[in-house]
Amino acid sequence: MSAARLWTIARLELLQRVRTVSWYVLLGVFALILIGVTALAFLSYGGWGSSGPGVFSVVVYVTLLLVLLVSPTLSGNSINGDRDAATLAPVQVTLATTGEILFGKFVAGWITGLAFSAVAAPFLVIATFAGGVQPLTVVISLLVLIVETGVIAAIGVAISGVLARPLFSVATTYLVVAALAIGTPLGFGLIGSAVASEGTSTTRSYEAGPDGAPLCRDGAHECGDDPAQMVCDDWQVTTTRVPRFDYVWWMLAANPFVVLGDATPTTYNAYGYPDDLFGSLKYGVRSAQIPPALEQRWDNCDPKTYLDDTDDRLSPREVIDRTVPSWFVGLGVQLVLAALLLWWAWIRTRTPARALPPGTRIA
Predict the structure, then answer these.
(1) CA spacing 20 to 30 A to 1: which of 92, 102, 149, 282?
(2) What is the mean pLDDT of the chain?
(3) Of residues 200, 297, 180, 288, the one with CA closest to residue 241
(4) Does one domain contain both 129 and 202?
């Protein structure tokens, strides 16, 4: 594989995009969105001086979201679009191999997606100077963002080589991206709710007098400080269905937003809670790994008595420290998926081709 030929193909692909006015309009719209998002993030996180980590994470997540929305359109027709325009066959008869054509278009799609990150760079700098952003957070989050952009570009280019119709390949790319970004939490919620366990709740309440205060056994007017003197009802046992999200938490591993949040180091505020969206999402996903309480006991006659089969009073730091990271598994699944699709696209694009889909244009 020649790096010179690969870059020539990538450069030609990029020049085609740069020459279109719509490309600059798209980048301008993205910049306007980031201006509004950054301003709202500063207001949400308390203004300048302590909002750096929160604003930085918001800008990175919005950048990833727009890459997921735009990249399939830009890369989902790169190969079959050239075939329809009769510009693929002239390239295939040159010294460029099928792998060079395929990876050249992949590099072009990756660079195109990174252009959105370049537009977001000034806003990331502003958030960093707002204070509190750790250098390691900046480096790792941006590296994951770059890798995720490449994964989406690879999926789009590969599907454009597998499918013959550009419109169908773009739609299929959106479906694959939606399966990763939206389908994983939907499957997590639905399957976790369907696979439920039986939970029991044992409760007891006191009998209240006309004034709402607890009735006392000895006829006294005040026994709130002495639960043994309260007139209490019988224990009531109820049975409920408890969702078992701890069985299906792994379904979220391949979600691009989860990969980004789970891979980024977590920083905490003065109250022990994550101070950015990376940590908040990580805390929510990691909490799903903890088995739910199947037996609960609440004694209203003695509010201090609350027994649980799990310690649900763990702090966010304790939850994150005691649970298993999954970002490398999810990223590995994405890379394997992209590699398999690229291999399939190479088989469908290589020449000489033994068979082509009906109606496929050659030259």
Answers:
(1) 149
(2) 82
(3) 200
(4) no
Asked if residue 127 is part of any domain, the answer here is yes
Residue 282 near residue 262 (C-beta atoms within 8 A):
yes
Over residues 64-86, the pLDDT tens digits come to 998 898 888 888 888 887 777 77
Would you say residue 362 lies in a domain? no
| Cis geometry, peptide bond prior to residue 303 (ω within 30 degrees of 0) | no
- Both 163 and 207 in one domain: the answer is no
The reported pTM is: 0.82
Torsion of CA 65, 67, 71, 73, to 10 degrees: 50
Residue span of the structural domain in which 308 resides: 197-322
pLDDT at 306: 44
Q: How far apart are CA 273 and CA 277, in angstroms?
A: 11
In a domain, 318, yes or no: yes
- 152: buried, middle or exposed (CB in 10 Å: 19+, 13-18, 0-12)? buried
Does residue 24 sit in the same domain as residue 150? Answer: yes
> What's the pLDDT score for residue 64?
92
Quick check: 171 and 92 in contact, CB under 8 A?
no
The count of structural domains within the chain is: 2
